[in-house]
Write a structure and sequence with these properties.
With 433 residues, the chain is α/β, with parallel strands linked by helices. It has helices at residues 2-15, 31-34, 84-96, 123-129, 141-150, 172-177, 215-226, 229-241, 245-248, 251-263, 273-290, 303-306, 308-323, 336-342, 345-348, 372-387, 402-407, 409-418, 420-432, and strands at residues 17-19, 28-30, 39-46, 49-54, 73-78, 108-113, 155-160, 186-192, 205-211, 328-330, 352-355, 366-369.
Length: 433
C-alpha cells in the first residue's frame, strides 16, 4: 500500500496542471499557481426551507451535522464551468501533499473522472479505466480492490462529473453512491445542478459551488492569468463598467474572457455565455490561422464567415454525440473539410484533442472537446444555423421528450442566446413537446 500511495501522489502531482493558453502546451501551470478560493455553501434542509451556510474552507464538507456526524456520501454540485473538476483535483492534490489535516485520515484517495468509465459494470474495470495504476502494474487492480474492501473507512472516492456519466446497464457508481457496495467508503460526487435530483436522497450532506462571489476572488484569479497589473486593473474595471460581474463568477467563463481580452485587447467583450464561448472559439481559430501571417492582415479575417461550414459540421457531430449521451465521437467521423482546410490546427491549437482510447474497453481513436461547455456551444451553433434556414428543418425532432430537453438544456440555452429567431423556434418546439 505504501508503494501504491507513492504512485498516486506522483500521479496527482503530475496531472494537477491547468493550461492557461489553449494553444500553448508550455502554458500549463501547476494547480497551486492558478487555484483561487471558490465560494461554496452547505445546503441544510429545514421544515421552513433550505438554510445556506458559507464554508470557510473546502475541507469543511467533511464536517458533519447532528444527523450525520461522520458524513459518507457528499454531494457537490454547481453550474457548468463553476469549478467542480478543479475542486476535485485540488482535493486529490492536497491529499497527495498531506496538507489538510482532515485528509490525512485517508490512506487512499481515488479521483475518478466518470466520463471515462461509462458502461463499465465491474468495479475493477472502473479502477483500471481511471488510469490510477502505474503502467507496469507494480500494484494490481485486485490488490487495490482488496485493500478498499477491508479498509473502507480509510478510503476516499472522488467521482467527478456525474452529468457526464451514462450507464445503460447495472451501474457500480450508483450502487456505491446508494450504499449497496462499499458502504463505509467516503464518497464525494460532483455534478451539474440538473442531475442533483437523482443523487440527493442517498446523500448525507449537500454543497453548492458558487464560483467567485467577491471582487477579491475575481481579481486574484485574473492576476494569476493576466499577470501584468496594468492589464488587470483595466480588465477588472471593464468587467465592472459593462456589468459582466455575474458572468465573471464562473471560472471557466472568466478564463475565456481573459483569453479573448488578451488576444483582442481593444475589442468589446461579449455579454452572454454563448457569445463568450463563441469569442473564445473564434480566438482559438483566429490565432491558429494568423500565426504565420503579417500583423496588418489579421483584422481582415472574418473567422466566423470563413469557417462557417467547418464549424457547422463540427457542431452537428457535437449535437449528435450529446443526443447519444456521448462526449466524444469517432475520429473517423471527422469531416474531410475540416482537415482539408485546417489540417491539424483545431487539435494543435486547443479546440479539441484526439485520444487513442477513451476507456479501458474502447480502442478506437475518439475526438474530445476541451470542455463539455465548448461541445454544447458548437452543438448550439449548428442548431442555430439550421433553425435560421428558410426551408423547414427537423434538427429538433429528436429532442422529443422532457428528459431529452433536460439533457440538452445547455445547448438550447446557448442557441437562444445566439439568435432571437432561433429562440422563438426553440420555445415553439418546447411548447409542442
Amino acid at each position: 500500500m505504501e508503494e501504491y500511495q507513492k504512485q498516486l501522489q506522483s500521479h496527482y502531482n503530475t496531472f494537477s496542471k491547468v493550461k492557461i493558453i489553449p494553444w500553448k502546451p508550455a502554458s500549463a501551470i501547476h494547480i497551486d499557481e492558478i487555484y483561487t478560493h471558490l465560494s461554496c455553501v452547505r445546503n441544510d434542509k429545514k421544515a421552513s426551507g433550505v438554510k445556506q451556510e458559507e464554508l470557510k474552507d473546502y475541507t469543511d464538507i467533511f464536517k458533519g451535522d447532528k444527523h450525520h456526524p461522520n458524513p459518507k456520501r457528499l454531494l457537490v454540485y454547481g453550474r457548468p464551468g463553476i469549478g467542480k473538476t478543479t475542486f476535485s483535483k485540488k482535493t486529490a492534490f492536497d491529499w497527495a501533499k498531506q496538507r489538510k489535516e482532515i485528509l490525512k485520515k485517508f490512506d487512499v484517495v481515488l479521483l475518478i473522472k466518470l466520463r471515462d468509465v461509462c458502461d463499465l459494470q465491474d468495479i475493477r474495470d472502473v479502477l483500471r479505466a481511471s488510469k490510477l495504476l502505474a503502467g507496469g502494474e507494480v500494484v494490481s487492480v485486485d490488490d487495490v480492490y482488496e485493500y478498499i474492501l477491508h479498509n473502507q473507512e480509510k478510503v476516499l472516492l472522488i467521482l467527478d462529473g456525474y452529468d457526464e456519466y451514462f450507464c445503460t446497464g447495472e451501474s457500480p457508481v450508483l450502487e456505491i453512491w446508494k450504499g449497496a457496495r462499499l458502504t463505509d467508503v467516503h464518497v464525494i460526487i460532483t455534478t451539474r445542478q440538473e442531475k442533483t435530483d437523482e443523487l440527493r436522497l442517498p446523500s448525507d450532506v449537500q454543497f453548492e459551488i458558487n464560483g467567485f462571489k467577491s471582487d477579491e476572488q475575481v481579481r486574484a484569479f485574473v492576476s494569476k492569468v493576466l499577470g501584468d497589473e496594468e492589464k488587470v486593473e483595466e480588465f477588472v474595471s471593464y468587467l465592472d463598467q459593462r456589468d459582466l460581474k455575474d458572468l465573471a463568477e464562473i471560472p471557466l467563463l472568466l478564463l475565456m474572457l481573459c483569453t479573448v481580452w488578451n488576444e483582442n485587447h481593444f475589442k468589446e467583450l461579449p455579454k452572454s455565455r454563448a457569445h463568450i464561448c463563441q469569442n473564445f472559439v473564434l480566438t482559438l481559430i483566429h490565432h491558429a490561422i494568423t500565426k504565420d501571417t503579417k500583423a496588418e492582415e489579421e483584422e481582415d479575417i472574418n473567422v466566423l464567415e470563413l469557417y462557417n461550414v467547418e464549424l457547422c459540421a463540427l457542431g452537428k457531430l457535437a449535437f449528435d454525440a450529446l443526443l447519444q449521451n456521448a462526449l466524444s465521437f469517432p475520429f473517423s467521423k471527422l469531416p474531410d473539410s475540416i482537415y482539408i482546410s485546417l489540417s491539424d490546427k483545431f487539435i494543435k491549437f486547443g479546440l479539441f484533442h484526439v485520444l487513442n482510447a477513451a476507456t479501458f474497453l474502447r480502442r478506437k481513436k475518439h475526438v474530445y472537446f476541451i470542455h463539455k461547455s465548448v461541445q454544447e456551444y458548437l452543438a448550439a451553433y449548428f442548431l442555430k444555423e439550421e433553425l435560421l434556414k428558410e426551408e423547414s428543418t427537423s434538427c429538433l425532432s429528436e429532442v422529443d421528450s422532457f428528459e431529452k430537453i433536460v439533457k440538452m438544456i445547455e445547448v438550447l440555452r446557448f442557441a437562444c442566446e445566439l439568435s432571437a429567431d432561433a429562440a422563438c423556434a426553440v420555445l415553439s418546439h418546447l411548447g409542442i413537446v
